[in-house]
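SAMPLE LOG
Freezer: B-3
Tube label: C17
Construct: single chain, 439 aa
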Amino acid sequence: MNHYRIPGLSIAVINNGKIEWAKGYGVKENGTDDPVTVTTLFQAASISKPIVAAAVLHLVEKDMIDLESPVNSQLKSWKIPDNEYTQKRHVNVKMLITHSGGVIGFGFEGYKIGGKLPTLLQILDGLKPASSSPIRVVLEPGSQWLYSNGGYLILQQLLMDVTSSQFPELMNEIILEPFDMCNSTFSQPLQSHFEKIAATGHKSEGTTVEGKWRIYPEMAAGGLWTNPMDLCKFIIELQRSLTGNSNKILSISMIENMLSRHFGNMGLGFVLRGNDEDLGFTFSGGNEGYRCDMFAYASRDKGAVIMTNSDNGQFIINEIFRSISAEYEWSDYKPEIKEMAKIDKEIYDEYIGTYHSKQEIRPDFDIKIEQENDLLYASIMGGKYNLTPESEQKFFIADHGWEIEFLKDDTGKVESIRYFIIVGPGTAQRTKLTLCVSG
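STRUCTURE (predicted):
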């Protein structure tokens, strides 16, 4: 934790169908001695999505939502605007849950405490004070996978429309209270009694997020405040429901549907790994100042949740999962062995610079390549990662499975990079340096 500048961390481990142990490490905020405990709250970020998916499926079983019908036929307060893509095929609820509806909306930056907050309708249409672009369909629905926070905002509106309820209260009623997730809430801003047990978010260099944390009115996409113990309660209920031992909100058949592949490795809310006895379900999350991850087996009564209050959290999360895997004999999170190439470090000079990726369906972003103490680093969307050489031009980022390859033009000069990172595959063009000389 000191190495990665991570102030606080919380873990809960499931074994034999129960929480075997849970523990907090470090402090809620740098510079204080206020310790992280098992009840300390963290922003779950995108781990909110499978929780919301479970609520949608609950209403599907009550015949209040239809997975296959056009979502516009079920929405009341707002409709997805028609365009050339929706004319080819309608967006349905299953597509939104599995990120296959072609809906834009990769990430949201949140809002400062004390500032003016947009309504959900303003966010959906990109109207001030919303700081994000309108939620629109940018690919033919069902044609390909596109991670979409925007799709879950449409589900947020749908849940409110069909129940005539406010979203936080609805999620309390359907999920949080039945699952005994007593230290969890979708309320944004955070309620005062929860503020006392909340961990402050921290940036990669160790400084605190301004105002302690950001507010996310995009609740279904990333607004859940919770802790590993409460998330483990959610996991255990799903595991028990699959065997017919509980079924508080979902039937066996619906749980089986939820944990089946519907688009690539996407289940209805979770990313799925493995098959049969080793089938695992997982999701990770990252808001400004927080990183977290959850993984569990569908039929082996095992799992774990790890939450941190740092942008650097993913580095240590992966190490902890490998340790849990070794101790509890998981089939997942085994170390991947790659051979490190021996190359002349002087070649790094040719790679240093900024590379710009421009994508129509995701935000533009830069990848900055720099060298420190004979090591090459890539700064990507707020994180800084060590590049390990696999060959003279191809590098990998350990713990993530990400890759970056430097591409040369006909003269042998590096002009671009090919990458496979958090946003998927793509290319980024080297930017030209412009010098300004004052007279």
